[in-house]
Design a protein that fits this description.
The complex is a heterodimer of chains A (784) and B (279).
Chain A lengths: L24 H4 L16 E7 L5 E7 L1 H4 L4 E6 L31 E2 L5 E7 L2 H9 L2 E6 L22 E9 L2 H6 L3 E9 L2 E2 L7 E7 L4 E6 L4 H12 L6 E4 L15 H12 L5 E4 L2 H7 L2 E2 L2 E9 L5 E13 L10 H9 L8 E10 L13 H19 L3 H8 L8 E2 L5 E2 L4 H12 L1 H14 L4 E12 L18 E7 L5 E5 L8 H13 L6 E4 L17 H28 L6 E4 L2 E4 L7 E2 H10 L13 E6 L5 E13 L6 E11 L6 H20 L30 E6 L15 H4 L1 H13 L10 H8 L2
Parallel strand pairs in A: 1-13, 11-12, 16-17, 22-23, 29-30
Antiparallel strand pairs in A: 1-5, 2-4, 2-6, 3-5, 7-17, 8-15, 9-14, 10-11, 10-13, 15-16, 18-19, 20-28, 21-22, 21-27, 24-25, 25-26, 28-29
Helix pairs in contact in A: 9-18, 13-14, 14-15, 16-18
Chain B lengths: L6 E4 L3 H10 L4 E4 L5 H6 L7 E4 L9 E4 L2 E5 L4 H6 L4 H8 L4 H6 L2 H7 L5 H8 L3 E6 L2 E6 H4 E3 L2 E2 L6 E8 L3 E8 L6 E10 L2 E7 L6 E2 L14 H14 L10 H20 L8
Parallel strand pairs in B: 1-3, 2-3
Antiparallel strand pairs in B: 4-5, 5-10, 6-7, 6-10, 8-9, 11-12, 12-13, 13-14
The chains are: A alpha+beta (784), B alpha+beta (279).
């Protein structure tokens, strides 16, 4: 028997669920990516920012004479420039008590953190621009800096907030004091978590070009959120939205730090508007990135929990301080971390009595903003630390204690004490599979053997977490902002030759969204994956998308792609039915061919249908317009919680503090998986980033507000050598959205803080209260 | 992160390099592998008026063993040092320098001239009681390891001198142990142990301004086998002998403890003691 790979009766093989060759690979894996950093335009000039060397100071004078006299320098801008001075970024929220503050594109009057842009130099190339930047002489009158968010300030960062408190909110459910009074054991923990930067391989980058004749601004940017940027720029620059085009070509990583509209972005566009026809380019270098891109996770937690004798979690009372840095990050506000911390602290555990006061405190440090996991790597650490303390106090197995309190399938939908509604319930399934894969019994035996026979002590760490993904309008990201980020749009167009072009509002920073969207559309429409081309990252091409954050794009952008694909399929079949005089309900579209039920040969191809739709209007049935496309929005209304569990075994040398990861298992519920390799890549990458945060990465300010970790020599990113072989498993409970997916972009980062701290504590019989868990810190704890 | 303006001179020979450095009047810098210098330029922490590139100077990449001493030209790269088997200690230490890309360009002589007290190769030079050959306007001189390193990132080299060759005596036995935050990082603490006859030289990197030669009197004279007891005594004495700083990657106390632990490992390796599998 022979078979032909092109046999017309071959049923459609779904693209979703298969590890298809990624659409991006030909560009990104062969060095042919097109990044903003690579962009060269005629007459383009380069920008270097002059940054404040002081954390907090009044600006008493800026002398740009020497800079302007530098070879190759064309212009120098300061915050007092008439086009820049009236503009301020102001992150708005209707949250009660939130103090709105202004962030100037270039510092005006005073500087609020070391690294804040004070002036900008435009020159023929970046070298000359940096030469010019050295010639900008700024006089400062120092003010007392505040670095720590839980110490009394001397000189407030913003006059509007004399105590530096930008926002505070108390989450309250039940009666926490009564519940604590009735608890069999009460445990207390005081924890701090460390300060991280995003550190994508490609730092921030932008090119702005303004054409005076038609008042059009084009902004090439590495942003994760092009439509948000367009809307905000229109307001700040006083331009019609349609006059701004944001183009996002290939982007070398984002991790949240590019989901922000930065003062440098606004300054670049404002400067370009004063220099019509001259494109201005700024590519952030690593020193600037560490100094002035958003930071995250500089938090303090004061916690108390009560447990019943059988291990039931009865009450959690928490006070949380989040260091929001010098400015309320635009447009997400200073609420981004504190509100996430208070909303998700209890994680996947059932709890009735909860009280948590969160605060966003301004300091003279780089603003904090969205970074993969937003607050939850810290809150999972806090919650798991409480459970570990509870298990010790009760003499209970820590995994059994967790199991006792997990939200179970029967509890779903579960209303968390913060009133978020959890739709997952797969926590126990993830934990069970993780523990089984890990082989807990073997590791417990090894732990005992080493205690008896010697060798580095082994500890076991565990964390269970819920990743809030694909937030719809009812649970939208951001605190009562002027916009709701629940929806995205997608246009699916069948071309006259039957090819399919997808114009999606998603953005990709390397996570393969072109591939994912193509898979979804191929299956929804009934064409081969190879026939689908995806266009993203251009506000003039696609209709709308909020962009990449909150693990939202597979859920929301994918939902829109699926709906648009389905709708075009309906249109194509209706036209095919008219052209073939067949009943539409007996037609099926697979692999780009239309089949009649019971027949092996196709009755018409999608290419033929497309040709008629665009070129042969004489063949169109009455009332049918030419063209073959559809645009749909999708909003999941709530969102999809994604469950996950991680378990690891670590060995620790008490003599040096050295930590070796021996085994690491992660099981997540990604719902229905679209691309298994991309999904595992997201999980592995986020665990690596989490391990980096737990053990290596730490942005340290000295008391004067100088960043002590200003290069990658001191800010330690994990390398392949530091990340162990990860064993990744899945459970699958499809979510109630068009494609059944749950987001996977962030989940992996949520556990490593808790897992590493828990395992080291378990190995040495100590408590870890402060992150990161470094050899030095471990050694100090063992040798007090 | 773009270098400030500088002039570039491609040296055709050692004399030409020296003349270019002399003409730069204290504002010249030798460019060999560039693995420390180029980042310093990009950060504008170094501002030489002239870079004197010695990469095209002939015959500086020689590597040969003569009379128990490895002679390495100024352009011998870390990768070349790691690949040779005539000086196994230097080969091992070179493998701990950075990553492949760094090792393929970075040079032994450059690392010594840069004099980073946390770098591996300065500690090896001192443990082996090696020396550098230096060319300058006044002629050539030979500078021993103890005299070469005068402070953190400070050597005894004059602004117009260039290292032409490194001498590394091959020890009878050796041990190398390093504690770093990550694979490829500079050492938090590194210990190099080298034995020449009855004489033991123990050098600790990362605990002071220069690689620290442990001075514990007669303890470093060993007749015959190095016993496990002596290893323990020596390691504890080494820890007492250092006065380390505190920084982001380790407190003074932690570094002192690391000195003892790394000394234990390095000396056990030197003595050929079996060490238990611990991880």
């Amino acid at each position: 028997m022979t078979t032909s790979t092109n046999a017309p009766h071959t049923p459609h093989t779904p693209a979703s669920g298969a590890p298809v060759r990624r659409k991006e690979d030909a560009r990104l894996l062969t060095g042919r990516g097109r990044y903003v950093s690579d962009l060269v335009l005629p007459r383009m000039r380069h920008v270097a920012f002059v940054r404040s060397p002081l954390a907090h100071a009044r600006i008493t004078g800026v002398d740009v004479g020497e800079a302007l006299a530098t070879e190759g320098v064309h212009a120098v801008f300061t915050g007092e420039h008439p086009r820049i001075a009236p503009v301020a970024l102001r992150a708005r929220s209707a949250l009660p008590g939130y103090v709105e503050t202004d962030q100037p594109p270039l510092a005006r009057g005073k500087v609020r953190f070391a690294g804040e842009a004070v002036a900008a130099v435009v020159a023929d190339d970046r070298y000359l621009a940096e030469d010019g930047a050295e010639g900008v002489l700024v006089d400062y009158e120092p003010l007392a800096p505040t670095v720590c968010a839980w110490e009394e300030p001397t000189d407030p960062v913003h006059e509007e907030a004399p105590d530096n408190l930008l926002l505070s909110r108390t989450f309250r459910a039940g009666d926490v004091d009564a519940a604590l009074a009735g608890a069999a054991v009460v445990v207390d923990r005081e924890l701090t978590t460390n300060r991280h930067g995003g550190n994508p391989i490609e730092c921030r980058a932008g090119v702005a070009r303004y054409e005076a004749a038609d008042r059009r601004l084009t902004f090439w940017s590495g942003t994760q959120v092009p439509w948000i940027v367009r809307t905000q720029l229109a307001e700040l620059l006083d331009l019609p939205e349609a006059s701004i085009r944001v183009i996002v070509p290939d982007v070398g990583g984002g991790f949240g730090v590019k989901a922000v509209l930065y003062p440098e972005d606004v300054a670049l566009c404002l400067m370009a508007m004063t220099m019509p026809g001259t494109p201005l380019k700024w590519v952030e270098d690593r020193v600037e990135h560490l100094l002035a891109a958003t930071h995250a996770r500089d938090h303090r937690y004061v916690l108390r929990a009560g447990f019943a004798a059988d291990g039931e979690l009865l009450a959690v009372k928490a006070d949380v301080w989040c260091n929001t840095g010098a400015y309320s990050v635009h447009p997400w506000t200073a609420g981004i971390e504190p509100l996430m911390a208070g909303g998700l602290l209890t994680g996947p555990y059932k709890l009735a009595d909860y009280e948590c006061t969160v605060r966003g405190v301004a300091t003279n440090t780089s603003p904090s903003g969205p970074y993969r996991g937003v607050a939850r790597p810290s809150t999972v650490f806090a919650m798991e630390a409480l459970l570990d303390s509870g298990a010790r106090a009760l003499g209970m197995d820590p995994i059994a204690l967790r199991r006792r309190n997990l939200i179970l399938p029967a509890d779903v939908p579960y209303r968390m004490p913060s009133r978020l509604v959890d739709d997952s319930g797969a926590y126990e399934a993830c934990l069970d599979k993780a523990v089984e894969t890990f082989d807990l019994g073997r590791w417990r035996a090894e732990q005992t053997r080493r205690r008896r026979e010697g060798g580095w002590p082994v500890g076991i760490g565990v964390a269970v977490y819920n990743e809030l993904t694909g937030l719809g309008r009812a649970a939208s990201a951001g605190p009562r902002m002027a916009f709701r980020t629940g929806h995205d749009a997608c246009t699916v167009r069948v071309q006259p030759d039957g090819g399919v072009t997808v114009f999606s509002g998603v953005t990709s920073q390397g996570q393969g969204l072109e591939t994912t969207m193509a898979q979804v559309v191929a299956d929804a429409l009934g064409v081969a994956y190879e026939a689908v081309e995806v266009r993203i990252g251009d506000t003039d091409e696609s209709l709308w998308g909020f962009g990449a954050f909150s693990s939202r794009q597979a859920v929301i952008g994918g939902g829109a792609a699926h709906l648009a694909g389905e709708e075009v399929r309906g249109k194509a079949l209706a036209l095919a039915a008219a052209l073939t005089e067949a009943p539409v309900e007996e037609l099926d579209l697979r692999g780009g061919q239309v089949y009649m039920a019971g027949q092996q040969k196709p009755v018409i191809s999608l290419a033929e249908v497309g040709r008629v739709a665009y070129l042969q209007s004489d063949r169109l049935p009455d009332g049918v317009e030419p063209g073959l496309e559809s645009t749909r929005f999708y909003d999941p209304i709530r969102g999809a919680f994604a469950a996950g569990a991680q378990v690891a075994a670590l060995a620790v040398d008490p003599a040096t503090g050295e930590i070796h990861i021996l085994d690491w298992v992660c099981v997540e519920d990604a719902g229905r998986i679209v691309h298994p390799v991309i999904v595992d890549g997201q999980i592995a990458g986020s665990i690596a980033q989490g391990i980096g945060g737990a053990m290596f990465e730490h942005l340290v300010y000295d008391d004067a507000g100088n960043l002590s970790t200003g290069t990658l020599l001191d800010y330690l990113m994990p390398t392949a050598a530091e990340i162990p072989e990860l064993r990744i498993g899945h459970v699958s409970t499809p979510a109630a959205n068009p494609t059944g997916v749950r987001g996977v972009g962030e989940g992996g980062t949520l556990a490593p803080n808790a897992v590493v701290a828990g395992a080291v504590a378990d190995a040495l019989g100590i408590e870890i209260d402060d992150l990161p868990v470094t050899p030095s810190r471990v050694w100090e704890l063992v040798h007090p | 992160m773009k270098a400030p303006p500088f002039d570039y001179h491609r040296a055709t020979g050692v004399a030409d390099a020296v003349e270019a450095l002399r003409a730069a009047d204290g504002e010249g810098k030798v460019l060999a592998g560039g693995q420390s210098l180029v980042p310093l330029l990009a950060l504008r922490l170094a501002r030489p008026a002239v870079l004197v590139d010695i990469n095209r100077v002939p015959d500086l990449d020689r590597l040969e063993l003569r009379d128990g001493v490895l002679h390495a030209g100024a352009l011998v790269r870390h990768l070349g040092l790691a690949a040779q088997d005539r000086h196994p200690l230097a080969a091992e230490a070179a493998r701990w320098v950075g990553h492949t890309a760094i090792r393929s360009r970075g040079t032994l002589a450059g690392s010594l001239a840069h004099a980073d007290p946390s770098a591996e190769l300065p500690a090896v030079l001192r443990a082996c009681d090696g020396a550098v050959h230096v060319a300058g306007p006044g002629g050539r001189r030979r500078l021993g390891a103890d005299a070469l390193f005068v402070g953190a990132l400070q050597s005894d080299l004059a602004d117009d001198e260039v290292i032409t060759e490194v001498e590394l005596p091959v020890p009878d036995a050796w041990g190398f142990a390093e504690f770093a935050r990550r694979h490829g990082d500079f050492a938090v603490v590194a210990v190099v142990a080298a034995r020449f006859g009855e004489r033991l030289r123990l050098v600790v990197g990362g605990v002071g301004a220069v690689p620290h030669l442990v001075d514990v009197g007669d303890l470093t004279t060993v007749d015959g086998e190095l016993s496990q007891d002596r290893v323990a005594i020596l390691a504890a004495a080494a820890a007492d002998d250092v006065d380390p700083p505190t920084d982001l990657h380790g407190s003074a106390g932690h570094r002192r403890a690391l000195t003892e632990q790394m000394a234990l490992r390095a000396l056990a390796q030197l003595a050929g003691h079996r060490t238990p599998e611990v991880v």
